[in-house]
Each structure stands twice: as structure tokens, then as C-alpha cells.
Amino acid sequence: MAILHPTRTYPALLPRYVSRFRCSGSACPDTCCTGWSVTLDKKTFTAYRQSRHPELKDIFDTSLRRQRSQGSDLNYGRIEMTAGDIACPLMQGGLCGVQKHMDESHLSNTCFTYPRIATSLGGQVQQALQLSCPEAARQALLAPDAFDFIEDRITVRSGELGSVQASGQAGSELLRDVRIFCLQLMRAEGIELWQRLAMLGVFCEQLSKTGPAGIAPLMDEFARLVESGAMLDALGQLQPNHAAQAIVFATLWSEKEAPGRTARQRAVIDAVAGNLGADPETGVTAIDDLVAAYTRGVQRLPQALAAAPHLLEHYLLNEMFLHVFPFDARDAYESYLQLVSRYGLLRLMLAARCVPEGPLPDPDTLVETVQVFCRRFRHDPKFARRASEALRSEGWDSLDKLYGFLRH
After folding, report:
1. Average pLDDT of the chain?
2. 175, 28 in Cβ contact below 8 A?
């Protein structure tokens, strides 16, 4: 069978967990074949239409749809999903019929690539995984060495390698230096995670106001400030604002009304809502009940995280590495606001799992919560922007107020 989509191999920088990842296939507890629209590029759509394979022809005839509205060669058609937890009609006995009866070169770009995202930053190729995949989340969040960076070779389809290029006087090396500086700041030892996030905010705010010539001196000066401990002394006086955290992030949570497409997703979403005091009929929570429940949960969260000590740090590192932080928004501070909004929403969900009396959630439950969070929010390209805009509109985008959001 002729190769439909050619590939190319690149040397790449990877977090170690990426090299360990293997799709769990039919054993996956929340398969990527459920609940999402699978888009088809024109080449794949045409190949499916022309296929005469006895096991697949009828499925192709009845389940392919043209993407008439806002269609393109990359978004030319889609697979019409069916009802139920296994929604893709091409799934046969827990395996993809295309991969079983044809070959992986005939998978759509969406199915071939997920959960991997490969990007070239100033000529350096990197790859990480989306944590909406249960196995990717498990590998990334629990292993102590998941974010040791290694060099390996990756295979990418032509046209599926994203790119971030230098602009103006900011050369490729400078882009990589900024990126490495941000990642190193988030991995600083002996500093609480919320303090690292707070310092990252200061750096991103200043970076947004600095021209290319001033970036290297800014990094040098900032490194000296961190090493001196002066910033930590100031941050140590700040107190958490649990009421604001609960109200703001619960409001953002409620904006996403999708109940979840699988039993796993629905169970997590229902547990979060119920533990935060939502009425089972209306979904409404009284403010006082919400704040009390969240405060209890967020105060118990560190005890739960003691059994998964790398979980939140690795979540943030994955977000930053995967989406080329701080170059994934209009400026570095906007990128930071979007990161903080996602972090705050995730912490709300994790805290909610810790509200009930009795045993705290185990590491598997915490990982499951992160995975469902990513599945629910991270694949909406507009949500992070709406969330940061909501912070701005309420006046919570200034660093002095954000600090109260960051501390547990």
C-alpha cells in the first residue's frame, strides 16, 4: 500500500517522559476517539472516499462529512461521531480500523499526531505531549525525572511541525535563552511553587516592556535578585485570598458548561461541582458555601500532593514547554496571565477533590483530575484568552492582586 502522508525525522529536545510514552490503545480509560470532532485533511478525506476496503468502505460511505463552513485543505472534512462512550465509527474491538486494515500513514493528521505537539523554536525542534491523554498525564506528572531533558529523534509529518521564529532584533539564540530562563526559574529548588510563579510574573511583566537589546541584561539582573533572596523576603509577607480564588475561578469554571462526554469525565466534573456545594438540580452554589468548601479543600491539598510531589510543578513545566512559553500570546505578560488562569482553574478542581471528610485523593485520582481538566479546558483555543480577559476586566491582572491568587 502506497504511503499517503510522508514523514520526516528530526533531532529534537524532549522531556524524558515523552520518550517513555506508549499509547495504551484499547486499555485507555478515556480514549481520544470519544467526544471530539476528528477533522480530516483533503488528502485523507479523498483517500477514505476512494477506499474499497471491505471492512471500511461502508463506514467511510456513511460517516464522512465535508467541512463546508470555514473549510480548507487541512480542515476539509470530518468523521461523524456516533453516540456512546466509543464514539468513532472506525473503532473496532478497541482498535482503530484504519490502523488495523490500512496503515498509520492513512490516519488523519489529527489521529497520527495526538497527543504529540512538535515545534521548532528558532530552528531547534522540540516535542511534548498534551495531558488530556491519560497515559501522557500519568507519565508526565508522577515520575520524578519526567522533566529531565534529553535529545532524541522524532518523526513528524510534513506540514505538522509548528514554528516560532525570531522577529526584529531578537535572534533565535535570544528566544531560546528566554525560554530556558523561564523554565529554570520554575525549577528553582528550595522555593515554594507559588513563589516561583510569582517571580515568573515579575519577569514576564518586565520582559513585555523590554526591547531586544535589554533582554540579556534583564535576565542577568533578575537572576541576581532571585539569588539574593530579596524577592522572597517581600513575597513571604503576602497572605492567600481564598475567597477571591474561589469566586473568580469558580466563575470561570462555570462558563464551560459541557458536562463531559465520557463516564470518566462526567464523574470528575460531578465530583468537583458537588464537593464545591453545587445544587444537584440547578448547579448553583451559594457564595459562602463555595468559599468555605474551597478553603477547606485548598488547605488539605498540600497533604494530598505529598503523595504526588511533582504533579503541579510538572503540569506547569509541561504547559510552558509544550506551548513555547512566553511566546504563545501577544506579549510575555499576556502569556503569563493565561498560564495563571489555567493553573488557578486546575487548583480549584484539585482542591475540590480534597473537600470531603475521610481519606485524601490518591495520586491516580489527582492525575485523573488533571487529565479531565486538560480535556475540558485546554483544547478550547479561546478559553485561556477569555479567562485572562476576565481577570483584566475585574482588575485582578495586576501582580499585587495576582499574588493573593497564587498562594495556597
Report:
1. 89
2. no
Pair (188, 320) in one structural domain: yes
Identify whether 1 is part of a domain: no
Lowest mean pLDDT among 111-120, 190-199, 250-259: 250-259
Instruction: Give the structural domain span for 131.
Output: 7-163
Specify the pLDDT at position 62: 93
**pLDDT single digits (tens) 156-188:** 998 889 888 766 556 788 889 999 999 999 999
How many Cα atoms sit within 13 Å of 226 on the Cβ side? 26
Q: Tens of pLDDT along 246-290?
A: 988 888 777 665 556 788 888 999 999 999 998 877 777 889 999
The alpha helices in 306-382, defined as continuous H runs, are 311-322, 332-353, 363-373
**Total domains in the fold of the chain:** 2
Pair 152, 256 in one domain: no
Q: Are 319 and 186 in contact (CB under 8 A)?
A: no
Question: CA distances (Å), 24 to each of 110, 256, 356, 367, 379, in order?
Answer: 17, 29, 32, 16, 21
217 three-state secondary structure: helix
- C-alpha to C-alpha distance for 372 and 263, rounded to whole angstroms: 11
Do both 43 and 62 map to the same domain? yes
Q: Is the pLDDT of residue 332 over 90?
A: yes
Q: Using an 8 Å Cβ cutoff, are 308 and 331 in contact?
A: no
Cα–Cα distances (Å) from 363 to 295, 303, 312, in that order, read 21, 11, 12
The closest alpha carbon to 154, from 111, 108, 116, belongs to 116
Cα separation, 225 vs 195, whole angstroms? 13
Residue 12: its H or E element: strand 7-15
Looking at the fold, whether 152 and 275 belong to one and the same domain comes out as no
Q: Is residue 295 part of a domain?
A: yes
pLDDT surpassing 80 at residue 1: no
CB of 199 within 8 A of CB of 185?
yes
Helix (H) / strand (E) element for 176: namely helix 172-186
The answer on 401 and 298 residing in a single domain is yes
pLDDT of residue 259: 58
Q: Does residue 77 share a domain with residue 40?
A: yes
| Mean pLDDT of the 365-375 span | 96
Same domain, residue pair 131 and 185: no
